[in-house]
Amino acid sequence: SSPRAHSVHCYSHGSHETDEEFDAVWVTYFNKPDIDAWELCKGVNTFVSYDLVPEQLNDFASAVHILEALKDKAGPHREIYPYFTQELRPTLNELGIFTPEKLSLDNV
């Protein structure tokens, strides 16, 4: 059999974590039955800082928060966010999810 690449996450505090360990930690985190809005936002923000997006967050507020994070992450590259929303439009429409702009959250 051919050798398999094995990814390891390294942190400034010296610990190492395989992809499987990393995934297990975050699956456990997001599957907590008592997770509150603050913990959810913290987790999503951490994911965005890693350039990751959590899957299966069946929650309207989380979806809008991820769109806000996408817009923020695009920073000065103003053409990126409209492209993302254009590509996501069919899914957003199917799920009944509005963009932060449609909800007037960009004016807050």
TrEMBL record:
It comes from the Eukaryota. Belongs to the cytochrome c oxidase subunit 5A family. One of its GO terms (biological process) is mitochondrial electron transport, cytochrome c to oxygen. InterPro entries: Cyt_c_oxidase_su5A/6, Cyt_c_oxidase_su5A/6_sf. Component of the cytochrome c oxidase, the last enzyme in the mitochondrial electron transport chain which drives oxidative phosphorylation. The respiratory chain contains 3 multisubunit complexes succinate dehydrogenase (complex II, CII), ubiquinol-cytochrome c oxidoreductase (cytochrome b-c1 complex, complex III, CIII) and cytochrome c oxidase (complex IV, CIV), that cooperate to transfer electrons derived from NADH and succinate to molecular oxygen, creating an electrochemical gradient over the inner membrane that drives transmembrane transport and the ATP synthase. It is found in: Mitochondrion inner membrane. Pathway: Energy metabolism; oxidative phosphorylation. Pfam families: COX5A. GO terms for molecular function: metal ion binding. Keywords: Heme, Iron, Membrane, Metal-binding, Mitochondrion, Mitochondrion inner membrane, Transit peptide. Component of the cytochrome c oxidase (complex IV, CIV), a multisubunit enzyme composed of a catalytic core of 3 subunits and several supernumerary subunits. The complex exists as a monomer or a dimer and forms supercomplexes (SCs) in the inner mitochondrial membrane with ubiquinol-cytochrome c oxidoreductase (cytochrome b-c1 complex, complex III, CIII). It is a peripheral membrane protein. GO terms for cellular component: mitochondrial inner membrane; respiratory chain complex IV. Gene3D superfamilies: Cytochrome c oxidase, subunit Va/VI. This is Cytochrome c oxidase subunit 5A, mitochondrial.
